[in-house]
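A favour, since you know our structure tokens better than I do. It will help me judge whether the discrete encoding reads sensibly. The space below this message is yours for that.
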Amino acid sequence: MLVISTLSNLKAQEVTSILLYTPKFVYQSSTFEVAFVSELTSDSVKSIEYLFGFDKSVKITEVNLSSGNSYEKINFLKKSVTSDGDWYSVKISPFEQKILKGAPFQILVKLSTNAEERLQLFYSLNVVHLSGKQYRIKNKENNSSDYFTESINIYRQTKKNNKSLQIGKDGFFEVASTEHSRNIIYCDFWMKSVDIKRTFLSLNIGDYKIQTIKLGVNENRFFTFFDDLKHLQFYKKSFLSNGVWNHLILEFDKSNKSLKYYLNGELVAISNLSSFLNNEKISFKFSNKNGGSLKIDNLRLTESNLSDLYLAISKGKNREFFKVDSLFNIAQFNFEELPKPSAENVKIGLENVNIVKSDSPIFPVAPELDVTLLNGGCRLEWLSSENEGINTFIIEKSFSGVDYQQVSIVPFVDKVFQYSFIDNSSDEASTVYYRIKQINRDGSVVFSSTNKIGKGNFKTFSLLPNYPNPFNPKTLIRISVLENIQVQIMIYSLEGKEVQKLYDGELNKGEHQFEFDGSQLPSGIYLYTITTPFYSQTRKMILAK
């Protein structure tokens, strides 16, 4: 959920609390929704016109109005067509549509897009008074513009063959934590719902359900609770677009007897767990009572004696496996196959569920490769930032940078993160390209960045992995320069599109670091390339918002 604008300075205060909610993660070529929530404080409004502008990658497919207990489809018109994109208009009449003064109403816009990295949304509102006078709501942050604008990040399916658990009608998947010795218990998971109304997750505290909390989605697509609400200490309205993946973190604190809910990294609610005892069982029951579609991916149960580790968990949300100091694993479900009825430290129940292909935003992490020219050969060194799910590494090289041949196979070793190999094969090529092909246990393949080296090249710097990685929104790129030399640092998208020239100039011998800020970029994998007149190296980094 992202609140774009709050407009409370409207003429005569006739329309207030105009909020635009958009999803955090949108999958390329998918359908998603944005929502305008407004409220009338006067009976003198004749009509409100919503204007939407998009680039050519976006189309409106449906618009609905929700007001009180009413939910209806409303018409939209294509207002104009330009070379940059199309404009649409949606008009509502408070009197005809029975929108009451003081009651919130919502315009829900369903969109489809084939944008590659991000899409631009422009919008504005025209209000017509009963007297016939009309005015446009201005962008108070930019007086020169009549329109508001917002970017929505797009991600694409990676090569990794992810799977998720799909829960059918009247089906459920329940995980009960039977043993947790530490003070803080975390549950995090990805969830995607389509036409799910009311409860999708019930939390039961204690063997006899001493306390039950029911999380769900209401008819306006907002995250809410379907219980007595006596436990709620804090609540912030948060949008769950239809058919879009959302990441949730639940943080149980035994000492404070509290439960915090984080949606896409943002605190959205706090519950009081008045009856939470030290050794109480906690069960998580995902259910689908009314049809539609509910999918779960990468469900993790962890525990710690430290609070506020949700930040570290949120940073690792786009990775299948990640390691955080002081965070201990209870159970993890990646849904490559149906969970077994019982597992260590947890009990499992399921009904009417199946495994399906997943398009969740989980990005594979490739090994980081470094190549050094030796007398008569090359030394390859690489780091594996993941320590689970890997089967083997294959060293490949090419003389053209296009056609690669296998050099050697290096088996994966549990709890070993650093690997090396010396290629002594002789050839007369002036340039050789190396890469590491990582084969995962599920059959998926991930490639490292390509390193180019040869007889005419010699290493003039040492490049360390950026830190942190994944990052949000800033990370440090660190290099050790071996002699005074001209250095260029470039940032590229995974498709090779230039994003930023981070540095271009001479560097003295010694350690240097450069901060890269990705706050204006969508989540995804990016490349950073360090180039000198004699040597070049590229690494990958993950921006995980």
Q: What stands out?
A: The two ends are 12 Å apart (CA to CA). Confidence is low (pLDDT under 50) at residues 1-13. Helices lie at 310-315.
